[in-house]
Specification:
alpha/beta, five-stranded mixed sheet, two-stranded antiparallel ribbon, 9 strands, globular
């Protein structure tokens, strides 16, 4: 989606961290700890030492951005999208009787140390529950096309909104309650990811009517058909079956941890069209 003319976004929301090689003391073991945590919920950072290493930061943050800059610069898009997500979820969760807190956010290059262990850019964007932080190397967005999706602002915003959805699951208890050690088309791991897709759809369906309290204008212009297709294409591209096919292997639903392309697209659409937390309860249905 395109940020509304007249909008502006204060700086400091996204910290800049990482760069160069993976931080010393973690290496490949630290990356393994992160992958294990993200896919199973088992925290190995205390064993590998990953959690004891602070996120390497440059001391800089993404500065204030205009709407025009947010529409052309990916780090500004990251920061501005978070601003919109903060406002949307900051109203939605308390209205549902929950307590809301905003996640931290880091933009990194090449490698970064996190509360889940060390990560490289090849990990892709992710949310780390122990430090309640979203980590994005914005160069990842260039890879969407390699997976068969057309890049575009809403496709990139979908990725950020999906990771923010994991933060919503963290503060509502879903992350702790779900059994994320399993795999398969009906597993809790898949249900967690599809719910985050649905939450991303909820945000997208409301973003064009969510008003920035600082400027009094809506964050984003109404979604066009082409932009919506880009977002759906991104959801489809990161489906387990598509990734398995792209890697040259056969499709194996028993190994899925994120859901099929069809599931991810459908649950994003559910959030977009129905726009309620109840509609996104992937744990209450047998029809994933």
């Amino acid at each position: 989606m395109t940020f509304q003319e007249g909008g502006s976004f204060g700086g400091g929301r996204v910290r800049k961290g990482g760069g160069g090689k993976v931080a010393a003391g973690g290496g490949a073991i630290g990356i393994l700890a992160l992958v294990v945590y993200l896919f199973t919920g088992v925290d190995l950072s205390g064993v590998t030492g990953g959690a004891q290493q602070p996120t390497p930061e440059t001391g800089e943050t993404v500065g204030a951005c205009t709407a025009e800059q947010a529409n052309t610069d990916r780090e500004c898009l990251y920061s501005a999208t978070l601003d919109s997500l903060d406002t949307f979820w900051g109203a939605t969760i308390p209205a549902a009787g929950g307590q809301f807190s905003i996640p931290e956010a880091v933009s990194f290059n090449a490698a970064v140390s996190t509360g889940c262990g060390n990560a490289s850019s090849s990990t892709g964007p992710f949310y780390c529950p122990p430090d309640a932080t979203i980590y994005v190397d914005v160069s990842f967005f260039d890879q969407l096309a390699q997976l068969g999706a057309e890049d575009g602002p809403l496709a990139e915003q979908y990725v950020i909104a999906h990771e923010y959805g994991h933060h919503i699951q963290q503060i509502t208890g879903v992350m702790d309650q779900a059994d994320r050690q399993g795999a398969g088309a009906e597993s809790d791991s898949v249900r967690v990811e599809l719910q985050a897709d649905c939450y991303a759809g909820m945000w997208a369906g409301n973003a064009a009517t969510t008003v920035d309290p600082d400027t009094g204008v809506t964050y984003l212009e109404p979604i066009t058909t082409a932009q919506l297709q880009n977002a759906l294409g991104a959801a489809e591209a990161v489906g387990d079956d598509n990734i398995q096919e792209q890697s040259g292997g056969g499709v194996n639903p028993d190994s899925w941890t994120h859901g099929s392309s069809e599931q991810r697209e459908r649950w994003f659409t559910t959030g977009y069209e129905q726009g309620t937390l109840a509609a996104c309860d992937t744990f209450a249905t047998d029809q994933l």
